[in-house]
Amino acid sequence: MAALWPASAQAADCRALTHEGAEFTICEIDAGTEVIRLFHSTPEGEVLGSFPRVDQMLRDRGERLGVAMNAGMYHNDLGPVGLYVEEGQQAMRLITSKGPGNFGLLPNGVFCIRDGRADVIESLAFEAAAPDCRYATQSGPMLVIDGALHPRFLPDSDSV
Q1: At which of 44, 70, 96 does a domain end?
Q2: How far is CA 60 from CA 46, 57, 97, 122, in A?
Q3: What is the pTM (predicted TM-score) of this model?
Q4: Are 41 and 80 a contacting pair, CB within 8 Å?
Q5: Distances from the Cα of 42 to the Cαs of 28, 39, 53, 58, 139, in angstroms?
Q6: How confident is the model at residue 56 (pLDDT cuts 50, 70, 90)?
């Protein structure tokens, strides 16, 4: 789960967008001026698992949640599938091999949050570069690769 809270009064520029009859909310966040973090568990190790729990944890600390979204992929027990880094501590390793399900449909990628920036990096390129991410989560497959839709996204596919 990813969340952002404002370092300034205007945390995100959000707008509604309709594409092919589907409605979306698009938020642009400047990683150079806003704080972006990932949240998985409480300091005691209890999985948060919902936005209201993240919001309450932040309120208890005197912080405010600005924008929240799901991030990464998780097993049934809510353990991360693939790389997960929180506050610089790696909780799960990077997975670069092909495997079952959507996650194993390569290429997949890593969302890496560093000082002043946030990047989506293809997993093999991430492994080679080994960037120092304060927060990171791996997910797959990548939806867009070098500006084009993933070639395995087929209209009659059973992947969702």
Answers
A1: 70
A2: 16, 5, 40, 36
A3: 0.85
A4: no
A5: 27, 8, 9, 10, 22
A6: very high
